[in-house]
Amino acid sequence: MTYDDDATQPHRPIPRPRPRMPLWKRLVLFLSTLVGLVLVGCMTLGLVALTPIAGGEPLITGLLPLTEEPGPTDTGSPPTPSDTQPPSASPETPATGPAATESLSPSPPGTDTEAPTLSPTPSDTPTPLPTPDDISRELHVPILMYHYVSAPPPDADVYRVDLSVPPENFYWQMRWLKENGYNVITLEHLFYYLNTGWPELPEKPIVLTFDDGYIDNYEYAFPVLQKFGFSGTFFILTDVTDRAQPGYMTWDMIREMHAAGMDIQVHGREHHDMSGRDRDWLIFHLLGPAQTIHANLGYQPRFLAYPSGRYDADVIAVAQEMGYWGAVTTTQGSLQSKDAPFEMRRLRVRGEWDFAHFIRIVQEYSG
User: Which of these, 242, 236, 243, lies nearest to 258 by C-alpha position?
Assistant: First the structure.
């Protein structure tokens, strides 16, 4: 018996060809895919970022062209001078800590209490070294040198007493500077002016520096500086700060001060004499602190205070190589020169000074 093959096989439908997508749809799909790939690639490279639509802002904004333009500088008139003598009664010691800023004694009626214009603060690492012009400049700008801003303990030795300015004395000193038209600038501002003649210095420029990074700088000096709109330059010991040594400011305190406009610069890793050292030692003790400050505060410090004021030609050479622009000494004086940026002179404020002596020294060494 034979079988019909066709009869034993199930019936299969004949497949129909799938209709092709219209050309315009294929083109739209291709372009959409291409645009998506380009956006993903740009976002990966950091060329664009997605931002919410608010206030008419575009959904996609470019990142590379964004730069901050400096705002105009207020050149308000200096404060009204007042009597240079503090009240006959002993002034009350200002409260401690930044939170005490508002509780400090107000200026006399009629005295301008608005903060003077602050000089430029240190910016991030790309701050360019100014190209010096061919003009040799030198001028008198007092750079005051403080250490402790606290009363010395009963058992303090002669050095601790000499380096300690009581908080009430510091308060009246800062108040006198403000009321008599002194304008606090940074070392960076002074350095730029000596090298390029710009930015112009305000009338009665003065620099306030604090060595070693003692905790009373945060507790007493910082709130007073804030009250009078002054920016201090604090030279810190980074290894001391790293290990949170008692009696010294912590990184949290220093970050708070920097965010409020204070200038943080290098004093070293430890308080070691830098003179007579070999090259490797100097690199370790000059480059390391600058890197530590950059890691914690986000900018490159450019100025150095020699521990105990000791230095030599090798210290200056390595400091220049490590990216420093200048340094302050403990040499008495106020004549600052374009030709000696690593030998800037200072005026040590001593604990034994009375108020009248402070006024006489500042006036004597002002330009």
Answer: 236
In angstroms, the CA 285 to CA 302 distance is 14
* pLDDT profile of the chain (367 residues), mean per 10: 48 59 74 72 52 41 39 40 45 47 42 45 61 95 98 96 98 98 98 97 98 98 98 98 98 98 98 98 98 98 98 98 98 98 98 97 95
DSSP string covering 282-297? HHHHHHHHHHHHHHHH
211 secondary structure, DSSP code: E
Say which residues have a Cβ less than 8 Å from residue 249's Cβ, sequence separation at least 6. Answer: 213, 214, 215, 217, 218, 234, 236, 241, 257
- What is the number of alpha carbons within 13 Å of residue 2 lying toward its C-beta? 3
**What backbone phi and psi angles, to 5 degrees, belong to 51?**
-130, 150
Host H or E run for residue 315: helix 313-321
DSSP SS3 for 235: strand
Cβ(95)–Cβ(104) below 8 Å: yes
Q: What single-letter amino acid sits at 183?
A: N
Q: Which pairing describes strands 138-140 and 326-332: parallel, antiparallel, or unpaired?
A: unpaired
Q: Which helix (H) or strand (E) holds 146?
A: strand 143-146
Strand 183-184, strand 205-212: pairing: parallel
Q: Name the token pair of 245.
A: 């040594």
Tokens, residue 262: 């204070």
